[in-house]
Amino acid sequence: MYKAALIAMLMGLSACATVPENSNVLKTQLDGPLAQLQLDTRQLQLRLDKLTEDKSCSHDNQCKVIPVGARPCGGPEVYMLYSTGQTDEKMLQYTAERYQQLKRKQNDKLGLVSTCQMLMAPMASCQQSQCVFDQGDVR
């Protein structure tokens, strides 16, 4: 069951980027360090989601975005929205930095490639007592 969950997790990651055909990475077999890297990355992703889940606010200045992850070509994968009134910003920053480091390692280890289009940081505001993105397709 443990291996099945890891394989499913890797399959989900492969939809976001592609592995070059000449890569030495075996797509059907996990090595120990790669499996651990995948688990560590997933745990940090879940922690980021938990840290930012309460987006309640009373003013626009409580709503912020943070760059998260690392695209193979550079820049963040997404921007996450959070409320400064509900989020431990130091813990969020630390977790986002650690997640970015692991995503870079993961990209390198898997030999992933992606588009080199950089994401612009979206604006956030407080609407109906909840932080929301003003525009863009972000997480």
UniProtKB/TrEMBL annotation:
<feature type="signal peptide">
    <location>
        <begin position="1"/>
        <end position="17"/>
    </location>
</feature>
<keyword id="KW-0732">Signal</keyword>
<protein>
    <submittedName>
        <fullName>Uncharacterized protein</fullName>
    </submittedName>
</protein>
